[in-house]
């Protein structure tokens, strides 16, 4: 016959396993459990201590006892990797996803794909769906990575369950999870230094506020200015969000903020095209009046009316590396899967010295 405390231990285990007691949920009080099982509070404490030692429960002084993780059940590999991307257009994302798919297919895995359009709620639905279907791992481009996320509970649940998860293209800096991305701070540094070497000191910047890449590229931009002894001018910095992008950058907006700039570092090629068009409306030529450097080295940079100097995005290589590193994480959870690709600047015809030189 089982000791009374073990009856309670098994009862709590079963409810965690069936998710009647979910991660983060507070357990009934010692008094309530004692009454339910007709045992003393000492017996209840003995049962709780067993589950605390197993890492299933956590006792918080003055607050109670909480479920800290689900029971790890035997996981039969599904040979399915969940991939969550912000977009699927023909910009850089098709190349990234092609790289991911090629590696997964070569290794016998299929890909379950979801797109968030950089919306937090869509990310939540995708994560919940994939985690409930028992994927073997997740490759995620987080939505609005530059802002606090209400989906941290899901990511923390994945951490507690030991689900292999890797961020690509960007990441949430608050989470101890690996990422595979372009080194965005070094990218901002390299692009801005290129403009400074051409003789520019009035260097403007356009950055994305709600994605962490924008903040890192801004940090690189600031570092380049400081290294050159150039004081940051807030009037030469323009921030935008995901929702702002569809409105575009009008000539009026440029005239109001960036009219004194002789050069602009743009967050990506899409923004650079809008910048070139706005400058043209203002009667300014690229690069004679304003030099422009952007990021991604996409087809947009090559086909722009003035071919753009742009920092290359690793695209397919990034996707392949993300998939390869996730598969290694599945085999070895201690593997350091983080990779930051160094920037490579591709020079074209959008940069020249300022007219005053």
Automatic annotation (TrEMBL):
Residues 2-70 form the HTH gntR-type domain. This is GntR family transcriptional regulator. It comes from the Bacteria. One of its GO terms (molecular function) is DNA-binding transcription factor activity. Coiled coil: none annotated. It holds the Pfam family GntR. Keywords: DNA-binding, Transcription, Transcription regulation. SMART domains: HTH_GNTR. It comes from Caproicibacterium amylolyticum.
